[in-house]
Amino acid sequence: MRSMFTPWKIGRLAGIDVFLHPTMLIIPLLIIARDQGPVALLFTAIVFGCVVLHELGHALMARSYGIATKDITLYPIGGVAKLERMPRSAGPELLIALAGPAVNLALAAIAWPMLLLAEGIVPWEFPLAVLDFIVWVNLGLLLFNMLPVFPMDGGRVLRALLSSRVGRLRATEIAAKVGGFIAMVAGVYFLLHGMIVEVFLALFIFVMGNYELLAVRVDEHRRRQAEGWPAPPVGYRWVEQGDGLWRLVPSGFANGWKMGRPS
Ligand SMILES: [Zn+2]
């Protein structure tokens, strides 16, 4: 059923539908409200074009692991490639997470020498400004996405690197904690500086990180039950230690008594 929040399809890239979320309307409205011209609209379109290519990087890397992407949707705060499932193993997760920022690195690496070359030849300011903008936007997207804030790409990289050592659940807990701390500090900073949009962005990332941690907890719990694990006693929980080793830990504590895998 169509509602006012049904995304609009704007195209198809490599067999993946690309949608605009209706909340994207706020961007041209902001541009009009701030009395900025069509140039601002063009530069905004460039930003979101680079975001789509970033998401396509994730989607194509996921496809190489047999994971399809339902669609790519653009929101005012960024893009989302909806993968049909998340890879459970660390290797694919690491490469899928890195593929998006790698696209931005590649775009900057292409645009920068073009800019240097064009500066000597092209007499017009405008194309040079566009190239310059493409370089900086992509470096910005690269750095922003690689911040170790789960569930952003950098946070996923951190989780993937940790999970081979401490297991997926513990790695997610650590990544969510690190990311939550950074998002909170950034949120307070933004609040003190009256940057309201950024406050909501930090809050959104904080909530999404904890939401995904919850999903991983539920998933791991179900998997252990399916494998015939006993439920933890009241007031305790299982904590993965890596290498198939689990600990029974009083709820609220990070560490507890070492236990082998019950058979
Ligand atoms: Zn990304």
List the SSEs and their pairings.
Layout: E1 8-13, E2 16-20, H1 26-33, H2 38-64, E3 69-75, E4 78-83, H3 90-121, H4 125-145, H5 153-166, H6 168-192, H7 196-226, E5 236-242, E6 245-250, E7 257-259
Parallel strand pairs: 2-3
Antiparallel strand pairs: 1-2, 3-4, 5-6, 6-7
Task: List bound small molecules.
Answer: zinc ion
Taking the alpha carbons of the first and last residues, their distance comes to 49 Å
Helix content: 55-70%
**How many domain modules?**
2
Output the structural class: alpha+beta
Shape: elongated
Q: What Rg do the Cα atoms give?
A: 22 Å
Could you report the average pLDDT, rounded to the nearest whole number?
84
Note the beta-strand portion: 15-25%
Order of helices and strands: EEHHEEHHHHHEEE
Largest sheet: 4 strands, mixed
What does this protein structure show overall?
This protein has 263 residues and is of the alpha+beta class. The protein has two domains: 146 residues, no CATH class; 99 residues. Helices cover 60% and strands 15% of the residues. Strands 1-2-3-4 form a four-stranded mixed beta sheet, with helices on one face. Strands 5-6-7 form a three-stranded antiparallel beta sheet. Strand 3 and strand 4 form a beta hairpin. The longest helix is centred in the middle third of the chain and has 32 residues.
